[in-house]
Structures are given as C-alpha cells and as structure tokens.
Amino acid sequence: MTHTRNTPASRPPRSKTTLPADGHAGRSLRARVEPMLVRPLRDDRYVVETEHGTYVVDLDERDCTCPDHAIRGASCKHLRRVAIEVNAGRVPAPGKRASVCAVCGRRIHVPTEAVGPQLCERHAVAPGDLVRDREGGSLLVVASVTTDRADEHETETGVTVADYDTNANYGGHEPVVEAVYLGSMRPSADGGVDAAGAKRYAFPASRLRRVEDDRSQARLDTFAETATA
C-alpha cells in the first residue's frame, strides 16, 4: 500500500467569481458580490480583474490603482477582496507562493524562498518530533527535514533513499527526513534526551507518521527519566 497519493491539487478558479454577502454593506458588500478574479504577482502584489477594469493591489502598502482609491484614498472593494481571499487561503499572502504537498497533492502556500519538495500541515514534521516508522513500527525522533528528494538523496552506501526496497511504497519525489531511533539516544543534562552522536537514518517523509497520542509521548518521557536515573 502506498502512502503517496496523486490527488489533484485544488486550484483557485481562473474566472471571475462572487462571494457570499454575509450581511455586509457598502464597499465590503461590493467586494463580495461583484465578480472578480484575484491573481498574485511575483512582487507580492495582486492583479484584480473586474467587469469594469483591471487593477493592481498592494496589500502591504494598502494601495490600489483604481480611481476610488487613487482619488478618494478609500479602502476600496479591490483591496478588501484581496484581503478576503488571502485570509481564506484562496491566494498566497505577501511573502508566500503556491505549491503542493509532496505526499497528498494538496495545494498549500509556502514562503517565497522555499526550495525543494514541500509538505502540508498534515504531513509536515519538525526536528524533535516523535514519529513512528510505518514499516517496522519503531519510534524515532526527527533530527532534520531536508529539501532533498528521496530519489536524489544518497545514503553513505551510495544508494538513494527511494531505491531501498523498504521504501518502494513511498514517493521518490518526497522530501527526505533524517531521524534517530529512540533507543539510540543519550540522556541530556536537562533531563531530556540528546540525539547528538546518534546515527541518523534517512526516510521518505510519508514513511514516518507523527506521534501525538499521550501514550507514545509518555514512553518518550519514561525513556528520558530512566536514562538519567
């Protein structure tokens, strides 16, 4: 069974749309009920296409090229529409760009400078997270999350992570996560556990399942206590 799903990414509409009125009035109402299409630009501004013209919005500067804003200095319907779509996750916020999760294909927004395969909140892990190996069931602690693809990252034996037989059911395009087995970690001075010096193993991201239940966390805490006793 593969844990990598080629689910089509959910993309924003490419035609003008309207939004529910939700009891709004004035410019806020017009921002919702008038057909508009918002498209992000590479310089963190947005193009807003309407039935009457096309305008450029800068959220950071609270600026729009429409006459309503240019002449009256008002928070126009175009500024409001962009803010609504950013808050709803329909378009990336300034400083972010659109991407897809390498595991499930879900459309996500990541920092503009982010490189390599990306993960959504559901599949992302971070250094220090307790995870379980889907293959053997062992507990590990994440040491690092790389920007390398599993079919590009070579281990010390010269074999790519994706080429290991045990990784056949996981995507070669997924980012590589380095982790250490819980049993190989040493006690730290602060009463926790220390991964320094422990051998790191590389896995495709979806092979490691983040552990969040209290029982598994208790096992980590118990290990730290017994290791320092």
UniProtKB/TrEMBL annotation:
The keyword Metal-binding applies. Residues 1-26 are annotated as: Disordered. PROSITE patterns: ZF_SWIM. Pfam families: SWIM. One of its GO terms (molecular function) is zinc ion binding. It comes from the Archaea. Keywords: Metal-binding, Zinc, Zinc-finger. Transmembrane segments: none annotated. Residues 55-87 form the SWIM-type domain. This is SWIM zinc finger family protein. It comes from Halobium salinum.
